[in-house]
Amino acid sequence: MYILGIETSCDETSCAIIDDKLNIISNIVFSQQKIHKPYFGVVPELASRTHYEKIHFVLKKALKNVNIRKIKLISYTEKPGLKSALLIGKTVAETFGYIYSIPVIGVNHLLGHIHSLILTYKKIKYPFISLIISGGHTEISIVYSPIERQILGTARDDAVGESFDKVAKMLNLTYPGGPAIEKLAKYGDKNFVNFPRPYMLDSWDFSFSGIKTAVLYYLKSINYKPNKNNKKLISNICASFQEAIVDTLIKKSFLAAEKFNCSRIGISGGVSANNYLRKKFYQIAEKLNIDIYFPRKELATDNAAMICSAGWFLYKKSISNTYPTIS
Ligand code: KG4
Ligand code: ZN
User: Fold this and answer.
1) Considering only CA atoms, which of 300, 11, 257 is closest in space to residue 143?
2) Whether residue 81 has its Cβ less than 6 Å from ligand 1
3) What's the CA gap between 10 and 43, in Å, rounded?
4) Which among 14, 94, 197, 296 could bridge 29 via Cys, Cβ 3.0 to 4.6 Å?
């Protein structure tokens, strides 16, 4: 049997089909990045208009060679996200479900990100500390099962990805900022500027707006003007900024692992695509004997396959009070 997934919470229009053994049959993602690029961030009205224009094409592509009769569940992103964008996915899911008499389930987008790990490691072990680092959200939790987590902390202000995007804008790079900063940081000196590390050790929450503001003040202090000739300076700033972010995320994640006596950490969400961050997590985990889970690269950013998986586990639990067994 198949599960159809629909994701429209932000700037990716995505539809996917997975089977009940969590094999991905199709996972079509139409990225709206080019549309939002001139604005250095997601424009909600443009996002919902584009979902509206593209969703039929994306759905058709995801359903290619799929026998619709085999679809036994439709799962869509219910929240959190841009309201008018979410509405497009919900409407398509409900309509499809009504026409073909298929049950429809709404899922939490952040649970979806955790399922990008479950799709990558079908035999993932529980409990694990989950760190979700995306464009709109930062969350640290303890995951006990495919549908149960205890949230420890969230972002008090900017999400991690958002701060990458805002710093990229200050440097006049591009949108999304994360990949651009990572690329330039490779050639930079991570010790060039000592940006603050907001560890906030009295809480599991995160606050990244301070690092962003520190970058802004630094740029003002050197009277920064974007210029092709200062590539070395930009690379140094990118490397220093990335280092401050990565240090903060690492500190809190490993602290949570220690505090809750958990030897596994799973990192998901768009920022988890960052190779430098991955490398540093693996390095420290090796010393501390902790297992690290990262999603396959194509599952790190928003996609509907992770929504299929989250919906499937929630649905199974709701009808039989058991989880599906994945062989
Ligand atoms: O999870 P996602 O696709 O969307 C949300 O749910 O928000 O995450 C998008 C975010 C953007 O802010 C983007 O800059 C960031 O993920 N991102 C990265 C990298 N790739 C994407 N940040 C740092 N390094 C990357 N390689
Ligand atoms: Zn996301």
Assistant:
1) 257
2) no
3) 9
4) 14
Q: Of the ligands numbered here, which is closest to the C-alpha atom of 110?
A: 2
Cα-to-centroid distance, 221 and ligand 2 (Å): 34
| Pocket probe mutation, ligand 1, options 42, 139, 164, max atoms within 8 Å of Cβ | 164
Q: Indicate whether this model's pTM tops 0.90.
A: yes
Residues 291 and 70: their CA atoms lie apart, in Å, by: 36
75-112 pLDDT tens trace: 999 999 999 999 999 999 999 999 999 999 999 999 99
Which of 111, 134, 241 has most ligand 1 atoms within 8 Å of its beta carbon, as the pocket-test mutant?
A: 134
Between the CA of 169 and the centroid of ligand 1 the distance, in Å, is: 14
Residue showing tokens 């058709």: 60
Structure tokens at 139: 């969350």
Region 254-276 average pLDDT? 98
Q: Which atom of ligand 1 is nearest to the CA of 242?
A: 23
Element containing residue 252 per DSSP (H, E): helix 231-259
Alpha carbons 3 and 83: distance in angstroms, whole number = 24
User: Is the backbone peptide bond immediately before 196 cis, with ω within 30 degrees of 0?
Assistant: no
